[in-house]
Amino acid sequence: MLFIRLSWVFGQAGWGLGIVVIALSCVVTIITGLSMSAICTNGVVRGGGAYYLISRSLGPEFGGSIGLIFAFANAVAVAMYVVGFAETVVDLLKYASLMVDEINDIRIIGCITVVLLLGISVAGMEWEAKAQIVLLIILLVAIVNVFVGTAIPATADKKSKGFFGYQSNIFMENFPPAFRDGETFFSVFAIFFPAATGILAGANISGDLRDAQAAIPKGTLLAIVITGITYLGVALCVSATVVRDATGNTTDIINSSSFCNGSAVSACELGYNFSSCATQTCKFGSMNNFQVMTMVSGFGPLITAGTFSATLSSALASLVSAPKVFQALCKDNIYKALHFFAKGHGKNNEPIRGYILTFIISVAFILIGNLNTIAPIISNFFLASYALINFSCFHASYAKSPGWRPAYKYYNMWLSLLGALLCCVVMFVINWWAALLTYGIEILLYVYVTVKKPDVNWGSSTQAVTFVSAVSNALSLAGVEDHVKNFRPQILALTGSAQSRPALLDLAHCFTKNYGLCLTCEVFVGPRSETLQGMNAGMERNQLYLNKTKRKALYAAVTCDDFREGTESLLQASGLGRMKPNTLMIGFKRNWRTAGADKVQSYVGILHDAFDFEYGMVMLRMNQGLDVSHLVEAEEEMLKAAKEQQALDNEMIPNGGKMKGLFRKSRNSSQQVLTTRGTHLK
Description:
Layout: H1 6-40, H2 49-58, H3 60-94, H4 102-123, H5 125-151, H6 156-160, H7 168-173, H8 185-192, H9 201-204, H10 212-239, H11 265-269, H12 292-296, H13 300-331, H14 352-366, H15 371-398, H16 413-430, H17 432-452, H18 461-478, E1 491-494, H19 502-512, E2 518-525, H20 528-548, E3 554-560, H21 563-573, E4 583-587, H22 597-612, E5 616-620, H23 629-652, H24 660-681
Parallel strand pairs: 1-2, 1-4, 2-3, 4-5
């Protein structure tokens, strides 16, 4: 982008709006860099780059959707950089008449190039790092070469192609915009913006960094500042030395027989007549020649080498980033169908399968063969990623989560929110239908992950906001007076364990319809030393059962020496503010005739206690009884026996014929156990 399109961007937008293009890109990337730095320094950063940062901040729903899009964007970025490289090669060979079909030649060269880059990437991070160092040195030399070249006096050939050295009239003529061929400020911005998307290159290889928490903030922000200054410096130098249109004909000079119609006033003042460019498209000048940097430089081949270095280093970085981000996403098993790509190879766990997938996507987009078509496609994907990184930082700060304590302090939650909104606005201004498509894909992926409910718990800020909202709503509700029109039965059901008395749960659902409060409660009777362990062990298991069976209820338990005392504790202490039970639901005591007097008295006392505490009362009586705990226990024993048999099968079968007799004997024994327990169930 620096050597191929920057002069064209400033030719179209003028250096006035060109500075705005670069400044807007830098504003977006700096805000994103600050947000990313805060997230990176809030905890251990593992492999996965932007996906890891977003998923651990906002949860798997957001992370899963943006992770897939971001990995795809990096794969398409490989195609963009490779096409830029291929364009340069084609332009070089075109002058020697070696290229006859420009688009197909770009496709062929691009495909060959991406195969070579794939080989370097698969070789491992050591080779990739060495290649990047060499390419960086070449790039730095090429940039210096541009600045040196602008100070060298122009030859007649360069003047005919639009380069006149530093001229104030050229600089002022290039100030206003001169949009052509349907281009606008935002279409030009869309083409330039991918040049600023490399800020996540360090984060994308976070798993390979020695100290990611320190390296990512420093490296990212320093890179943004250096690249911003470099883009501005190179672009302004070209704007002060090169006119927009030139014929390339050394005979187009002003003399007594020629007339300059003022289509390029500065060129006329400098003795050259480029009037023909007003009626036809010329081949040279900053608007027409993508190789302006080569012409301006002190030594043209160095710019070619710099172009190769810039495009190939960026392509290599994206080719390494995309598979690693995708591998991290697949390892989390959010999309079970993609788990195939989670497998790594070698000591560095290289995602070979991800490399192949990235290669296929890259080749598909290389076949487009047009840089101006590919660039806007990935602009939206990267902007969507940046928007969520900024929103992650804002959301984590807004949630006031105790786990949000970033070591990096130079960020602001409202600045992060502004960055997120700015990214969204720019997406729609660049290409509204592409923005809608991007967000449509995100929403579909978000809904998919939400429905599938992956079994992960990363302590996301979404959970923190849910907690804060619940507390805030409970406090707000505490100041609201009761009214008969808003009365809801809120049930405290003495079910024992959540699955022991399903009939009580069904009856409670008839009252609450999943909109009222329902507590399924259990009283553990006995010494605390004996019952406490069982109570704690059952808390999570019983709540999971309620969630699994889609019962909108909460499980609560107490331990007491007496059943009535435990129930009294539940009646008095259950609930939160206005969200407090007002109806006790209890099963009918079927054995009241044969039970001891103390148990009957305790049961009747519970009914009196409920009325004393101003509870409503619901009593359920069923002929066959309510307690099915013995059936549940028998079912659990059957499942346990089945698992033991399966484990035995897996252990015995690989050992061949020597263990067959023991295997048959063990299997028959297991079948006898199952038959006996099945008869007990009947």
